[in-house]
Amino acid sequence: MKQLKKRLVSVMLALAVALTLMAAAPQKASAMNAEEIADYIREFYHGGLGEFEVSVSEYYEIVTVIGLVTDAMYPMDLDIAAGCKVIWRASYTCLNSGADRYVIKLTGGGTFQIEGFIQYNTPNRYEPVNAIIADLDPGGAIIVTDGGNVEVTEADGPALRIPENRRDISITMERGWLRGNNSPGIYSEGDNIKIDFDGGGTNGIYATGDNVAISVVSGGTGAVYAEGRNASIRISGGYNWSQNDVTLYACGENASVNISGGTTASENETAVAANGQGASVTISGGDVYSGGGTAATVLGQGSSITVSGGEVSATESAALLADGQGASVTVSGGFVFAYGDAIEGENNVIAMSGGAPAISGAAVVCAWDKPNGTFSYERGSSTDLTVSPASASVTWDTRDYTTDNPLNPVITKTGVTYRSGVNSGFFVIEGLPITGDAPGGSISHFTLVNSYSAGIFTDVAASSWYVNAVAAAYEYGLMRGNSAVTFNPSGDITLAEAITVATRVHCKYMTGSDEFPPVTAGAPWYISNVDYAIANGIISATAFSNYSRAATRAEMAYIFSGALPAEEFPAINTVNSLPDVTAATPYSEAIFMLYRAGILTGGDSVGTFTPNGNISRAEAAAIISRVILPSERISGRTYG
User: Fold this and answer.
1) What's the confidence (pLDDT) of residue 516?
2) Quick one: 429 and 551 in the same domain?
3) Which residue would you say has higher pLDDT here, 311 or 441?
4) Same domain membership, residue 157 and residue 96
5) What pLDDT, on the 0 to 100 scale, is given for residue 28?
6) Is the dihedral of CA 246, 249, 251, 254 positive or negative?
7) Which residues pair with 312 in a beta bridge?
């Protein structure tokens, strides 16, 4: 009997302890379906000010949360079933200072979409803290869009953390921010984690685990660190920058960094690094820059750097470094540049622990040994520049760039022009003392390269108003059909197509060559043309984000006006005003210049332009033919 009583007492004590622990534990939505999640949030006691409002979609799959809650004291646990989505449009600020150390914890295999505000806002002696813990099952997903913002303030910690032993979780950034405090915005310890940026930003990513894949198409990140077997960082756009850290670092067996666009820069450290056996850095486009280390480094047996495009540069250090048994560097395109007081000759551009780099194709590798004291360079010269291979050239130059500032519509930048076959561009080095006249291209470089005959395009009638324009654009090699037998004259011209035509005009004018920028392997067909247009000042790097959409007439004027120097557009008409174009109209300077030059005429007798309307391929052919053939320009008109 005594033993039985002891057992009962022990059971009661254990039960009491369990109940106490349950009462102290964070409130958790044990239900998995949408209706039960909604009920849980409605009944959730947050201990702060304000309230949430919750609705469930017609088919009970989506829970939408709105409302404003501040000074909350308790964290929320959401268990989201696979197939369910919670759309968070509420604002939730939590002052939780307990051992839980988070605002929202996610479990289950569903999707949590953030369109509102979530903040951890209080000091915590249990640091680090987390705004969101994503303890999700495989297939679980987090989406940040429509201005969603998650941040930690006061205490230290990430905005979003994925614990270890989690796997197959995806994070998608579309618009919004994940901001940690003295910590990266995203901190992950799981395997097979997929992080995609198609907009928005974060102040850093730290991910450990096998098969982590990080991709940036647009938006921006701080320092990105991925460690584990097959860790992968892929950059095709966006702005990725760090002040004192390696900006992109992949570490582990077969770790890789692949850059095909965007800007990756570190002010005081190496910009890109891959460390591990078989690690690789591949650069086919974009800009990679370091102000205090190498632009790209690989460490490890069999590691490699491959550059086939883009601009890769470093100051006071080698641009590329390969260290390890069997490590290699291959440069077949792009511009690799090292410059500063410590740079002496091409051997300082690429550093290797053994062997020599393979430089071929249209590559340009250059070193500038910056002299001490006062110096100046003659435009068109190669003084103090060491260039390889012998077929490449790099010369001192200046370029004029248009701006949106009506008080200063054109600014002049200094730097170097590089060229090797079809690979050419202008690399900006601000504030150089460069003198002399600019070497220019020539309209005479435009010669016939194709023969046009009636019926070559079945949709271009011999009696159509645009037949001569289509013929000229085709014969001079500037426009092609959208198939072997059709031109699609009434179809909209896209930004990508307009930029491609402009790069062909610029390349032909400057070099007389019919070799245009090649398609970059593994990238959208137009990327090489966009890179060329940006490098040569035809468009600005931030002018457009979606190159597949139709170009407006104003955008077309801006793009085509940059294809040739301003002196090739002398005024032959008087433009006092236009019916639908003012100084406030986007790209008005380019529009007015092309009207004065007789390239644009408008759609009626008074010159109505319709700047926001789309432009057809036939109209684009007519305009580009006037750009390259001054004899086709319309003169003697007065507008306004």
Assistant:
1) 67
2) no
3) 311
4) yes
5) 46
6) negative
7) 288, 336
pLDDT band at 422; cut points 50, 70, 90 = low
pLDDT in tens, 88-105: 999 999 987 666 789 999
Q: Which amino acid is at 609?
A: F
3-state secondary structure 381-407: CCCCEEEECCCCEEEEEEEEEECCCCC
Q: Which of 572, 567, 554 is nearest to 609 (CA)?
A: 554
Residue 152 lies in a domain: yes
Residue 366 lies in a domain: no
- Regarding whether 144 and 97 lie in a shared domain, the answer is yes
pLDDT of residue 345: 45
Co-location of 74 and 137 in the same domain: yes
Helix, strand or coil for residue 39?
Answer: helix
Same domain, 528 and 629: yes
Q: What is the CA radius of gyration of the chain?
A: 30
Q: Take residue 628 and report the two structure tokens written for it.
A: 């390259």
Given a contact cutoff of 8 angstroms between Cβ atoms, the answer to whether 639 and 574 are in contact is: yes
Residues 118 and 30 in one domain: yes
H or E element that contains 359: strand 358-359
- Confirm if 69 and 87 have CB atoms less than 8 A apart: no
Task: Compute the mean pLDDT over every residue in the chain, rounded to the nearest whole number.
Answer: 87
Q: Which residues pair with 382 in a beta bridge?
A: none
Alpha helix (H) residue ranges in 456-526: 467-475, 495-511
Assign 46 a pLDDT band (cuts: 50, 70, 90): very high
**Are residues 521 and 633 both part of a single domain?**
yes
Closest CA to 638 of 556, 571, 559, 549: 571
Q: Render pLDDT for 241-280 as a digit per residue (tens, 0 to 9).
A: 999 999 999 999 999 999 998 999 999 999 999 999 999 9
CB 534 within 8 A of CB 540: yes
Tokens of 301: 């047996």
Q: Tell whether the model's pLDDT for residue 619 goes beyond 70.
A: yes
* Per-residue tokens: 193: 């984690």
Q: Which of 464, 406, 369 is nearest to 587 (CA)?
A: 406
Least confident window among 145-159, 368-382, 384-398: 368-382
pLDDT at 64: 96
Q: How many CA atoms lie within 13 A of 186 on its CB side?
A: 34
Do residues 536 and 408 both lie within one domain? no
Among residues 209, 232, 262, which one ends one of the domains?
209
Phi and psi at residue 87, to the nearest 5°? -100, 115
Distance CA 564, CA 569 (A): 8
Helices (H) and strands (E) in the chain, counts: 8, 40
How many domains, the chain? 3
CA angle, 70 then 72 then 76, to 5°: 120
Residue 40: band (very low, low, confident or very high) from pLDDT cuts 50, 70, 90: very high
Q: How high is the pLDDT of residue 517? A: 66
Is residue 306 in some structural domain? Answer: no
In which element (H, E) is residue 550 found?
Answer: none
Among residues of the chain, what percentage have pLDDT more than 90? Answer: 62
Structural domain of 143: 24-209
Tens of pLDDT, residues 209-236: 999 999 999 888 999 999 999 999 999 9
| Cα–Cα dist 388/178, whole Å | 43
Per-residue CA distances from 600 to 143, 190, 280 (Å): 45, 58, 49
Report the DSSP beta bridge partners of residue 162: 188
Partners of residue 113 on adjacent β-strands = 87, 143
